[in-house]
Amino acid sequence: MFLLRIIVALLLILLVQITVSGKLLYEECRSHMGKEFVLIFTDNSRHNNLLRLYITTPLNESVTVHVETPLLSQINQDYVVTNGSELFIELPIDLAILRTTKSNKTILVTAQNFIVLFASNMQNNGGDSYIIYPISVLSTEHVSVNLKSKSGSYHSVTSVIAVADQTVVDISLSTGSVVVFDGTTYTSGSTLSVSLNKYEVFQFTSSDDLSGTILTSNYPIAAFSGHELGNPEISSETSIDMIYEMLVPTIYWSMYYIAISNPVFDSGEGDLIQVFTSEDNTNIMINTSGTLDQISVGTKASYHQFDLPLSEAAVITADKPVLVSQISASKQLAVSYTGDARLLLPSPVNAWLSEYSFNTPGENMYNGLVLFANSISLINITLNEKSLNSSLQWKKIEGTNFIYTSIKLSEVHTL
Fold it and tell me: Is 135 helix (H, G, I), strand (E, B) or coil?
């Protein structure tokens, strides 16, 4: 099985930037670039874990990067990254955190100037890669995005990292979920409160779906969520894989998204789309191929989900801020290769930019780039300084002025 990674720019499923009412998520550099990051890796019980960092810089200079485990003595090393190249760092596999626990296995990455950081947790026959947002954009409320999987053998997982001493995280569990910690069983409707000092981690798992679990804290935290090894029920395949993303705080959620179901595949079941609400009584409009559906979601952190067939677009609007997630179904790619499930958090339309730098893990991977653009303002698109205009075949998104296309690619890019 090979992991399929889809990278979407212009809509930018890698969430290069989020804006809310004109407020930039990261005003200083207008992107996911930063100088200080924290992250962790979760374990999914498979063997041969490869924990990796991929670091690039958009600056025309060499940037010194320091990587350490601030609460452990395992890592404390400097590296240098230059424009147009990728710094690849492999980390000890025992830094992966298994099931529900408190941990000191935070990884701290600091840089002299702006960098872009991706984490890659690859295991035998699978894994996931995810963008890491800088500490400067962290906040105090998140909603967990997980999965009700076809396979019940593995768990939904959510992780939080404190970046200040005396941080208290209150965890309000979603309907049907059960978490056991320190001999106490917590169920939906109850609140699990955890006290953390700077760089401490709390990770919790459940055999049930943790989606909709609310994380609130007195100081900003880094939050991650996903599933140890899962596959959405829309999939006809039995293959399972890890899905994991860094969560977007609710203050950056928005009211206008477009989702495209996996156009890099030429066949398959498509994507499972989930729309999470930040407030009670949220009205959601979904336009799929000209068919309009209006849904009212009554309570905060609840979600509406629907299947989006392969290569179809869904235009999602709401009267209050929401978060959209996409989970692809596993799919047979070739004779013995399966593109396993992956989780993406598309950014809202008001976050689109005109330039992006990003990278894709190259070995044993099928990588695709999906571009969204406004057909009225489309002028010229270059990838790595080469024009793409003559080679692109655009498709219209019904009910909008937007168009999209997809291409295959690998490794480090400037769009």
Answer: helix
Other Cβ atoms closer than 10 A to 386: 8
This prediction has a pTM of: 0.85
Bridge partners (DSSP) of residue 328 are 271
In whole angstroms, what is the distance from residue 172 CA to residue 193 CA? Answer: 9
Query: In angstroms, what CA-CA distances link 29 with 18, 25, 113, 212?
Result: 12, 9, 11, 31
Does the pLDDT value for residue 28 go beyond 60? no
Q: Scanning the structure block, which residue is given the tokens 């006290």?
A: 195
Those residues with Cβ within 8 angstroms of residue 361's Cβ, 6 or more apart along the chain or in another chain: 5, 52, 54, 120, 122, 129, 367
Confidence of residue 27 (pLDDT cuts 50, 70, 90): very low
User: What residue type is 357 in one-letter code?
Assistant: S
- Compare 267 and 81 and report the one with higher pLDDT: 81
Contact (Cβ atoms closer than 8 angstroms) between residue 50 and residue 90: yes
Amino acid at 367: N
Q: Are 375 and 403 in contact (CB under 8 A)?
A: yes
Question: According to the per-residue pLDDT averaged within each range, which of 231-245, 300-314, 393-407 is highest?
Answer: 300-314
